[in-house]
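Input chain follows. Return structure tokens only.
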Amino acid sequence: MEAVSDLYMTTSKRDYYEVLGISRNASEEDIKKAFRKLALEYHPDRNRSEGAESRFKEVNEAYQVLSDSSKRAKYDRFGHDAVGPNGGRGFDGFDSAGGFGDIFDTFFGSGFGDVTGTRRNAPRRGNDMQAHLSITFEEAVFGVEKDVEIARIDVCSRCRGTRSEPDTVTTVCDNCNGSGQVRRSHQGFFDRFVQITPCSVCSGEGKIITSPCAQCNGAGRERRQRRLVVTIPAGIDDNTQIRLNQEGEAGFNGGRPGDLYVVLSVQPHELFERHGADIHYHLPITIPQAALGASLKVPTLSDDEKVVIEPGTQPGDKIRMRNKGIPHLRGSQRGDQIVTIDVEIPTSLNDEQRKLMTALAESMGDTNANSRDKGIFNKLKEVFGAPE
């Protein structure tokens, strides 16, 4: 008797508002929210730590009183004595309905031992899948339709997911009456507890399959090779994922299929580099073209176009070609093509070229010592030297 009394003291003499962490003027919704949070935190099936079960009992006890307007009024006026074992503590939800399990059913759709509410015979969504697809630079720029082959788990083509041979019937499990769960009552110190476990006869399915499908061995699903068409929009970038809705694995018990995520790998281009919606191209030119200027053809994503090289162009100078880049995924605009000038220094000259180049360098002297031209002509002197 003392042991029972001590346990009762630990669960009933603490202020119920303090147990739920709410104020004394808390609304009915506040009480429900507090209970949901604490019940999930301390439910014995979710929390195996020492003291969790006692804390769970305490939370339930507090909720049973404060959620009932008449009991709450008595408690606010007279305290624990008005709702204790000798003052009306016979909690209706526990004594008559079966304990923690039914309280959890009310809030979370399941009982003690199944806090998620998921039963094996309930429809469940299929798993998502991922596939990889390599495309060219041009396909990423302009968009394309590509085929992708995947091996996925589909609904069995023979039994259509019923798991039984065609023209056969399944029977409802007598042990659980088709619910897939069995309820067992346990008497505790204060209350009756209801534990809900999967039915051992039907393995939680709620039905007995007498003639399993010969093609899928009663699984209701089978692995098949599928070819799908993926529409790749113009302007897609490397490592982008495209989701194909409900093209993943088949669901369970009539649940929706999962999704397929296609991860794109864009091959590099031999001429262009991509930076966002812009593309970059390096244009090699000669020293005379840089010094005197020129009009040259430049490759673009669609066709060759002319660009003007201004006289005195320096290595590293850039020319922006508007709207010659990559289309934006959203909108009608395009990026630009950035042309970077590379002035090529010749590595070998014949005698006449050497004399002309040396004469040019000497004629310029130090007049360009403080200009950007210094680098090119000084390098020429270093490479070729003075004529003999």
